[in-house]
Every structure is written in C-alpha cells, then in structure tokens.
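Worked example (supplementary).
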Amino acid sequence: MDFLSGLNEQQQQAVIAGLGPVLVLAGPGSGKTRVLTQRIAYLIGIQGVRPHQIMAVTFTNKAANEMSERVGQLIGDHKHGMTIGTFHAICARFLRRESEHLPFESNYVIFDADDQLSLVKQTLRELNIDEKRYRPQSIHSSISIAKNELLLPDDYPINNYRDEVVQRVYKHYQSLLLSNNALDFDDLLLWMAYLLQDNPPIRERYARRYEHVLVDEFQDTNLAQYTLIKQLSSFHQNIFVVGDADQSIYRWRGADYRNVLRFESDFPNRQLVLLEQNYRSTQIILDIAMAMIDRNPNRTPKHLFTRKGAGQKAILHELYDDRDEARYVLEAIASLIVRNQAQPRDIAIMYRTNAQSRILEEAFLSAGIPYKLVGAQRFYGRREIKDIIAFLRFIHNPEDELSLMRIINIPPRGIGDKTLLALRTRAQRAGISPGLFLLELGQNPESKYREGFSRRAEAILSNLGQMFLRWVQRCSNLRPLELMDRIIEDINYDAYINDGTEEGLDRWGNVLELRRLAAEFQEIGLEAFLEQVALVSDQDTLEASANAPTLLTLHAAKGLEFPIVFIVGLNDGTLPHSRSFDDLEAMMEERRLIYVGITRAKDRLYLLYSQNRIAYGYSEPVDPSRFLADIPLDLIDGVSPILSRSSNVGPMTQNQRWQISSDKKVKSSELKSKLYHPGMHVRHNSWGEGMILNSRIEDDDEIVDIFFDGVGLKRVVASLAKLEIKT
DNA sequence: ATGGACAATGTTTTT
DNA sequence: CATTGTCCAT
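After joint prediction of all chains, the assembly is encoded as:
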C-alpha cells in the first residue's frame, strides 16, 4: 500500500475516499497535489480503473504535466490514456473531435486576447458604434462574463441601453468568429457546455467514459466550468474536487468560489475532507497569513498548523520609492546568496501588477544578476512572434481573416487600404473568405477572380496567393519547423526584422526562440503547436532549470512555493489595487491575493512598501497598504511607522511621518478621527450584528463598510446608521 | 502606399 | 512615461 505512505490521516482519507462526490477543502501547502496524484494512482493501481476513464483538470499545463509525471512515477506506464490538462485544453481537443456537430470546422483557430479585442473593434466599426462611448475592452469584458455565465446573445439580460449595445455587439462578434472559423477562450467552454447540454447522446458518451473526474483549484471555476464537470460526471457521479475558497483570486474572470457551496447543495451526499496541516511554511508565516485572511467575513475559519516550528520573523521594511524598493531587494538577495543562506532559485519576488516588474528587471540587469520572469504575454505578445504565428495560423486555417490582415502586408508589399477594400468586396461577392479568395487567385491566375483589380494590385495579390498556396500545399508534408523556416526564408523575414539595430537583433533572437519551441512539436504537428501557443499559461513559461530568482505577479504565484518570498509594492492603490476600493467583494479578493502571496513562502518573508510611487512619470506620495495593519506586531522584524496604526489602537497614534508624506489623506481622514476600524463588531437596528470591513472620512462624516451576518455587505453613513459597538 | 511626427490616452490580475 | 492611434508629407 505505498499509495498511502507518508500521508497524514486526512490525506489518506481523501486518497481512498469511496465512490460518489468528494469535496476536499485544502489549505495552502497542505499537499493537495500529492493527494490528487496519489488518488489517481490508487484508482488505477488498486481499484483497477482504466486510465482512459479518468479525467483530471488542472489550472495550468505545467500543473498537468507535473501531475502526469508524478502519477507515472507511482504506477509507471499504466497511466497512459488519461485525460489530463486545463479546462481550455481539454475542451479544445473535444471540440475538434466533435466538430461535425458544431458550426465550425475542426481546424478552427483559437483567438487570443489581442485578437478578441480586434474583433470587437471590427464589430463596433461594422455596426457604426462609437468606440469612444463604448470602450472595446469594456464591451469585450461584458461579453466574456456573459459567456462564462453560459449566456448566449439572445439570453443576454437587458437592463439599460448599454446592455442592448452589448447584446448587438455580442451577436455580431460571434458571427465574425464563425466566419473566421475561430473560437475565443470563452467559446471553448461555452460550446462544450452547450454541446453536452443539447445532445443527450453525446453527453452520455462522455459521461459514461469518465468514471472519475478530478478537479484541482476548484474555487476558481466559473459557471461554465462547473456545469461542464457536472455534465461530464453525470453518469458515474464520481466527482472529486479540491479547493480553498481563501485562495480564490479570479472573480474578475467569472470564477465563483460559491461553486464550493453550490457543490455542497448539488451533492448533499458528498464526502468532506479537510486538509489543515501545512507542510510548507513556518508557523510565523502561517500566523501572518491567517491574521490577514481572518479579516474577511463570511468564511469558514481554518486553523493552519505546521510541525516546522516558529521560524524567523517576517521582515517589514519601508523604502523611499519603488526604485529604492528594487535596490533593497537586490541587496537583500545578494546578501542571502553571499552568506550562503539561499540559492538564487529559492527566491521569488511578487507584485500586484505586471508594470511593477520593469523597475525590478532594470535593477537585476544593472546588477548583472540573472533572473526568471514569469509571463507568457511577454513573449507571445511580441510583434515578431505574433507575425510568425499569424502566418502559421493562416496556413492552418485560411479562413482566419484576422491573421491574414496582420500578415498581408508583411513585409510591406504595397497593399494598402484601397487594395484591401477591393479584396474584401470581391471575396464577399464571391461568397468566400478573403483568404480562400487569395488562394483561389494563386491557384488559377486566369480565373474570373482577377477581374476588378488594378493591374498592380492584381499582380501583387496573385503573387501573394501563389506563395500562400505553396505553403498550404506543403503544410501537410512539412513539419512545423520546416514550414516555419520556409516562410521566414520566402518573405525574407530576417532582413525585415533584423535591421542592424540592437532591437532588431533582439527581435531576431525571439524568432529563433520560437523556432526552438516549434522544434518540440515536430512529431505532434502544427495544430498542436498552435493550440499550445494559444493556451499557454504564464506559469508554463517558468523554466525550472535556471538557477535564478523568479519575478512574477501574485496571480501567477498561485500553486507555487519558494523558500524565500519578497512581496513588493505593499501600498494602498497597488495592493489593494485602487480599482477595487469601491467594491467590497473586490477588496476581499485583494486580501486573498496577499494571502496567496504570503503562503507561498516556506522560510522567509519580506514585505516591502514605499513612501512614494513613480507613475505616469511623476513620483507621488502613497500610503502603506491598509492590510499591513492587520499583522500582529510580534511576528514582524523591523518596526515601521505603519505598525502603530494597528486597528485596535486607532488612527490617532499614527506616526506623524505618514501624515506629512501623504498630503491627500491629511485633508480629511486624519483631521477628524474615525470611530470604526476594520475588525470591530457592531450591531445595527435592522441588519443585526456585523463586522467592520473598512471605514473612511468623507465630507465630515464617516462612511463604513460592514458585513452583516446573513445579510451581506452594506455601506452606511455613521451619523445616520446608529451603530452600536460590541466589545 | 508608406513612414514619420505628433497627440491623446491610459495601468489589475489571465485561460 | 510609454504605448497606441491619427494626421500629414513624401
């Protein structure tokens, strides 16, 4: 029974849990990945479940690969045939397989965030909607949220005029996707969920096949994903989910930690396992994390404990500005390494927004210390990479008009607005996509398709069509790398991009890097390569090999662990982010975010904040993060002014320095003192008892956010609400 | 059709 | 400030 060796009692209970729904609530560092892998091994090795009847859904491809590998270590080759991957990747494969039942072809492309935005813009143009009045991003985000809620255009709820606009855009946007033979990220889930919902025979086929469905990071599923796993497990009902509501950080993407509650009410017979023992962090780190998260109302309290001992106090340090912060980080890292207290790879630096990485990168570069940066966007968002990918995408799916428009004039070959318009019109008249039109033109230069263009345009276009056609024809014989090289050579991309400048060299270097990635797909093929490129997660870009510190956002840090963690930019406005200030749910999520960050640390934790922040080119005074006030003093090394502003003491004792450095706060909140502080318990006449979440002075009155038990979040004006303070 | 010069505008987090 | 879009001269 080595499937259970080294597991504690709760972990064992989860691994060998019987048939039926199982909910595992797992605190950070409680070994949930281990539980998942051992359970899979147990199901296959002991229960005799066939691997192809198991589906395991993870959050990143990296996690999927790791899990698959670890299962392999336990049971060897018996793992083959398992379905394991992210929701998006699994759905992408299913949808290709089932495309005959769907309104797109199996060679569809997946539109990334940039493509989606372009498509929304195109829609707005075609519908004559003013981009200034209706921001494309905001419209797109509404569409995305709707899709995650499984709302089709016709179901889109209309409450005001904007909703009506969104609905129209949504409808048109979908038809554009189909005419490009493309799906966006959200479509992968949406189409799959509807395919299973509307086709009982198909649903049954899948549901019968998957005897066991296991889901990691369950708290970050959205309604579409929740519906999917319910459908997939609808026959055998063996659905095993692992999650932690306190680590739910993707609400803005439609994730709903209440799916945990929904699960409990949908499956009242579920077995429940709690994993509270932490194998990662020192007790001090856990205590800080708990002090932080305890301020969130309406959660099931968890008591995290470890056998690791108290460990060192966390270091809280105030710096002058973010540049100074970066300098401090570099010095601390240098000192740790020189004193042999850490390997470079043991160290991570985490921040709230991607923009913060820049200043850190500069510090690393000028210090000559190598670093690893987590972020797929950084690589795949580059112009030269997008260009090459667009060529490949077009060849794979010539109906991809967006990719065609990107590459049609790269390198510049004299195709401008006029020619483009002519091409579009002619293609439309012929009833085919511009891409197919071009290929046709290349195939048969004498065809009727050539009519209606200027002689110049006709020559350019039919040349281009011939080149495209050659690629498309060879695409079935050539492997990804050869195809890519062929394109680069044919268009002389080297000369175009590598213009002798340092930047050009850099860009060319990126192209070579992409070649290296393509080389890994020689056997599996172009389609798999393009799919991988579209669905990479940030974490997937982290190479374990290099011995260097890691720079990453708090979001990207989820699921990872490091002996030493720096969290920088702990200032109000950054963490919590200013966009969250007026939304109580969002503020709770900001708190969970810092909780996730803290619980990544195994041994040492550095918390840094600054007096000033450089933004928009100007340096501006900022406040320390309000969350810092919740850390018990005795867990911290390096006393700083903010600590005297602990919520129990009240703002009057706040150090003078802060009042001086932050002039915008001085005006109001510091002149009139607050009566209520986060963490206080109060009673309200009609809403009963609640806990103060936040309070601020505005126009000589105090505005208080309170969470009332059984009622929810309320914002009240103190002078009107008659709150009674409970002790 | 192309590329350069200027203005305007805007920063969360990502599969 | 840094990126993106728009206008204008070639």
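Two points are worth noting when inspecting this output. Residues 614-618 of chain A lie near DNA strand C (CB under 10 Å from a C1'). DSSP finds 28 helices and 24 strands in chain A.
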